[in-house]
Amino acid sequence: MPEAMAQEPGSELIAEIHVPDAEHAGGFPPFDAATFESQIVWLVLSFIALYLLMSRVAMPRIASVLEERRDRIADDLDQAAQFKRQTDEAIEAYETALAEARAKAQGIAQETRDMLNAETEKQRVVIEARLAEKIADAEKKIAATKEAALQNVRAVSVEVADAIVTQLLGEADRAAAERAVDSEIA
Question: Mean of the per-residue pLDDT values for the chain?
Answer without folding.
Answer: 84
